[in-house]
Amino acid sequence: MSGRAEALASRARTQQDVQRAVDAMLEVLQAAESGDLAPRVEIEHEANDPLSILATCVNGMITYLAERRAETLRVQRELEGQLEMIQKQQVAIQELSTPIIEIWKGVLCAPIVGVLDSARASDMTNALLHSVVETKASLAIIDITGIEAMDTQATDHFLRMARAVRLLGSECALSGIHPNVARTITHMGVDLIGILSYRTLRDALQAHVTKRRTRPANSNGRLK
User: Fold this and answer.
1) What 8-state DSSP symbol labels residue 223?
2) Which pLDDT does position 94 carry in this prediction?
3) Does residue 111 lie within any of the structural domains?
4) Which residues contact 199 (CB under 8 A, 6 or more apart)?
């Protein structure tokens, strides 16, 4: 083979090598574009070869993207864990802010402490009504000892709560009404017919126990 033929053959091989290397790089870049960061360009030439340098740069870029994605996923998992913890804390806080306590068989108590806004009143009403149904309570006591003052809107909230309990066939009692709250209720002209009122939670429970003891028995010897 003449020198010219050898040169042409060598040039052809070089072009084929370049095309093959470019195709391999394009394949890796396309995979990265589709989200697959696992493939890498196989380096077939000497380290100082331009194709090897270009392939090393492509591989370095893919590795960098893979590391950043892994870091992003790690941070995302941490954030999801924190959000889950916050949601659990919110549920716990909500349960603590709207406690429904069965202080006696068939007797529930809903102590209200702090500010009673619309959202909290709605949550407490739902919790109380569900508890009345689940426990088949005959009496629900709404204790507002911890509230010294209440505006007309808040007063309307807990009075609606009391009426809702009565609609389920249970008695409802208010205990611990502060003089300021009593004045607010009076100024509102609210009808409290059917809603019992006691000075303290103890008085309300004692009245309920006394009522059960004095209630006449039916023909089977059971309390009516």
Assistant:
1) B
2) 63
3) yes
4) 175, 176, 177
Task: Kindly state whether residues 134 and 209 are assigned to the same domain.
Answer: yes
Q: Could you tell me the strand order of the sheet in which 195-198 lies? A: 101-104, 107-113, 139-146, 171-175, 195-198
For residue 93, the model assigns a pLDDT of 64
Domain membership flag for residue 144: yes
Please, what are the averages of pLDDT over each run of 10 residues along the chain (224 residues)? 48 71 88 89 80 88 92 92 84 68 89 74 85 92 82 76 88 88 79 81 89 63 43
Final residue of a structural domain among 56, 89, 122: 89
Beta bridge partners of 104: 107
Q: Which two tokens stand for residue 166?
A: 């009565």
What pLDDT is stored for residue 219 in this prediction? 43
Note down the domain range covering 45: 3-89
Check: pTM over 0.70? Answer yes or no: no
| CA terminus-to-terminus distance, the chain | 120
Domain end (from 55, 89, 123): 89
Both 132 and 202 in one domain: the answer is: yes
Quick one: pLDDT at residue 221? 42
At residue 202, the 3 state secondary structure works out as helix
Name the nearest CA neighbour of 164 among 140, 197, 191, 189.
140
If asked whether residues 22 and 111 sit together in one domain, one would say: no
SS3 assignment, position 201? helix
Number of domains in the chain: 2
